[in-house]
Design goal:
Strand order of the largest sheet: 3-13-12-7-8
Structural class: mainly beta
Shape: elongated
Number of helices: 1
Order of helices and strands: HEEEEEEEEEEEEEEEEEEEEE
Length: 235
């Protein structure tokens, strides 16, 4: 009888241990279920067609589990969005979902959530609509244990020359792009046709020499933990 009782207790403990806990993370913080975040940033990236640009909203939200498991992620939005967590990207829609996202214990996975809009040649501002997005995730082994967060983003006029940039990190002095960074980044300069005309791995304090470039308007993009983008006018 004692052996049977012990076996039953162990089986019960095994069931409890197998119930993975899924959480979302944003800017290094774990979000409680039902939390709401507001994202106001965006990036300007070269479009598929040479000379065109896209504005991309990517709030960089991560999903993590305390146990190795396969999860389902579901989203509901008032605007078409896509996400690529786990590898394959969903088609852009108002209700994208994936049921095969594999997580390792304690390893955050970027949702790679994106709202993308065409910016043409980047010369004019683009109205980004207000987007309200609900994100839910649950382990496939227990769909009743669902974690949900809300995201609000957009609702502003986007333009290459009004991108949110940390001007203490990147400034133009003459024909040098001076940077002051806290970590490693990639600094790229584009022509208005979308061609990369300067590209360098940077960190700390320094400058990128642009004296070889003819006078004109260019775009720069700093990628890293704290990115920046904007327009350059070389005289």
């Amino acid at each position: 009888m004692k052996k049977l009782l012990l076996s039953a207790v162990l089986c019960s403990a095994g069931v409890l241990a197998g119930q993975a806990t899924i959480t979302f993370q944003y800017q290094g913080e774990t979000l409680p279920t039902g939390a709401e975040i507001t994202y106001t940033g965006y990036e300007a990236l070269p479009g598929v067609t040479v000379g065109t640009w896209e504005y991309v909203l990517n709030p960089k939200i991560f999903v993590v589990s305390d146990e190795a498991t396969t999860i389902t992620i579901q989203m509901e939005s008032n605007e078409p969005i896509q996400f690529c967590a786990g590898g394959t990207c969903t088609p852009a829609s108002k209700n994208p979902s994936k049921n095969d996202v594999q997580l390792k214990a304690g390893v955050p996975v970027d949702l790679l959530l994106e709202y993308i809009t065409d910016a043409g040649d980047g010369s004019e501002g683009v109205d980004i609509p207000s987007i309200t997005l609900m994100i839910s995730a649950y382990p496939n082994s227990n769909p009743t244990v669902k974690t949900t967060v809300w995201v609000k983003m957009g609702g502003f006029l986007a333009g290459v020359d009004s991108l949110e940039a940390d001007m203490n990190s990147v400034t133009l002095k003459g024909k040098s792009l001076v940077y002051n960074l806290t970590g490693a980044s990639q600094l790229s300069v584009y022509s208005l046709s979308g061609k990369i005309v300067a590209n360098e791995s940077v960190s700390g304090n320094g400058s990128l020499d642009l004296s070889a470039l003819p006078s004109g308007v260019y775009l720069y993009k700093l990628t890293g933990k704290k990115g920046a983008s904007g327009k350059l006018v070389l005289k």
